[in-house]
């Protein structure tokens, strides 16, 4: 990194790192801390698009292509340090280091896949459908029907774009209906067929 021009900036909790509409002229890497990407819906409600933690990159897919404007606001959720590498310096690094280029392409591909799943999730109208989709994705990842949720109910509500009480009510309903067993963050899928049926 000594040969690559770069800059490190520190942001306080709740400080705006980048605004929607900003030009993306450099690669931004979180080297410490965490941030969230948020956008406003048509009703003026803030919708959390994704959570970012070190060593995630910020809007790496918007560094190249026709539209280089950032689509979301990026806000620090704790003290966060960001490493900035200008586009041209990154291009030079790609030419000299194939491993760096491959890692960058992997990051973009993984992010695109993640956002595709997010779009699918937002396309589900019911809260039950959103939560069912989330649980089934966890089953696929964990390879088992009993696991601990990585996100709190408040975090999940933000991800789904709904209120926390509404999500809590749905979880209780699904528990009482025998579809799942829920104890805090501990979840057991009891009726996977019924859970899958909530996606329709």
UniProtKB/TrEMBL annotation:
HTH crp-type domain location: 125-193
S-adenosyl-L-methionine among keywords: no
Cleavable signal peptide: none
GO MF terms held by the record: DNA binding; DNA-binding transcription factor activity
InterPro entries found in the cross-reference section: cNMP-bd_dom, cNMP-bd_dom_sf, Env_Response_Regulators, HTH_CRP, RmlC-like_jellyroll, WH_DNA-bd_sf
Coiled-coil annotated residue ranges, if any: none
Keywords from the UniProt entry: DNA-binding, Transcription, Transcription regulation
Keyword set includes DNA-binding: yes
Entry-linked SMART domains: HTH_CRP
Any one GO CC term of the record: cytosol
Residue ranges occupied by any Cyclic nucleotide-binding domain in the UniProt entry: 9-111
Domain of life: Bacteria
Protein name in the entry: Crp/Fnr family transcriptional regulator
Species in which this protein is naturally found: Plebeiibacterium sediminum
